[in-house]
């Protein structure tokens, strides 16, 4: 069409939000990497890679998990989140990001892979009704913009650390998506592995609902969400007190 500038060659970037759960602390975690080169050298970011010519986006998302933390996962552990195409998301060559979420059933020992100088688990939580990621003294906030365009149009808040690129917005979209699916498709429970207790499930729900474990009643939770779970019996003895019942997520 005359007068219309076509976008012929955007870079296709794969971003993967890798979630997991630490049973010792009963906390949800998200993986971040420190970038080893420009742009945004030494800034923390979500793991990412460029899609290769002979692979699908789904394959690239799983490859990213293998390259960053050395795990080969089945495809059901990963789901597509959204596509991010705003022209303002990159400063130079136009790049489109396909974002995925991966639910790790274990927290392996981390080793920084290609493009990263450090890799670390950040505890997922909330403060002042905002989602955040915490590791030691490092704190990153999810974006509080109400719309995608509002995020890209507003200046970044000064006086606080920021994730690279538009990863604060992607993090916000991911956390909100998980929260909105808790009542009908809580795939986030895959981070608990093959079996888990109701208490562990409630521990996963709590930060996304911006509440505490104690505020989610066990009996009510079983009534409202039991249809999403399969009862697989009683846990093997090995802890004091009455052994809890174990459950498994019903996959569609």
TrEMBL record:
Q: Which residues cross the membrane?
A: none
The alphabetical list of record keywords is: Hydrolase
Where is the NrtR DNA-binding winged helix domain positioned along the sequence? 191-249
**Which segments constitute the Nudix hydrolase domain?**
26-124
Task: Report whether Disulfide bond shows up as a keyword of the record.
Answer: no
* Domain of life the protein comes from: Bacteria
- Does the record's keyword annotation contain Cell inner membrane? no
User: What is an example of a Pfam family matching this protein?
Assistant: NUDIX
Q: InterPro entries from the xrefs?
A: NUDIX_hydrolase-like_dom_sf (IPR015797), NUDIX_hydrolase_dom (IPR000086), WH-like_DNA-bd_sf (IPR036388), WH_DNA-bd_sf (IPR036390), WHD_NrtR (IPR054105)
Gene Ontology MF terms: hydrolase activity
Put simply, this protein is called NUDIX family hydrolase
| The organism of origin for this protein | Ligilactobacillus agilis
Taxonomic lineage from the root: Bacteria, Bacillati, Bacillota, Bacilli, Lactobacillales
Gene name as annotated:
mutT_1
